[in-house]
Design goal:
Layout: H1 2-19, H2 23-56, H3 62-102
Helix pairs in contact: 2-3
Length: 103
């Protein structure tokens, strides 16, 4: 029984030490969260702009609709690319913060 209690105490100690986040870890998490929100905002904005363009040309000639669809797709692609770039930069910044914390 004594051995079991010692093992449990050791596991709890190791777990609590491993879970203790430093200020830089919390800052890295905040960077990731803010970056994810910003990327999601960019995606939403570009999708809304593309959908508005499609809606405005619903009753237009087929050639106009086709051109609008291509432009809407380009808007969405650009938004996705910008969001991905923002996420990558945020992840790099967060990783750098965590690396400073390790050193």
């Amino acid at each position: 029984m004594k051995t079991l209690a010692i093992c449990a105490a050791a596991i709890l100690t190791i777990a609590s030490v491993g879970c203790d986040e430093s200020a830089l870890d919390r800052e890295a998490d905040a960077v990731r969260d803010n970056t994810q929100q910003g990327a999601e905002d960019i995606r939403d904005s570009s999708q809304n702009a593309a959908e508005n363009l499609r809606d405005r040309t619903d009753n237009a000639a087929e050639s106009v609709q086709d051109a609008a669809e291509r432009k809407a797709d380009a808007i969405e692609d650009r938004g996705e690319m910008n969001a991905d770039t923002l996420e990558e930069r945020g992840e790099n910044k967060a990783d750098a913060l965590e690396e400073v914390d390790v050193e």
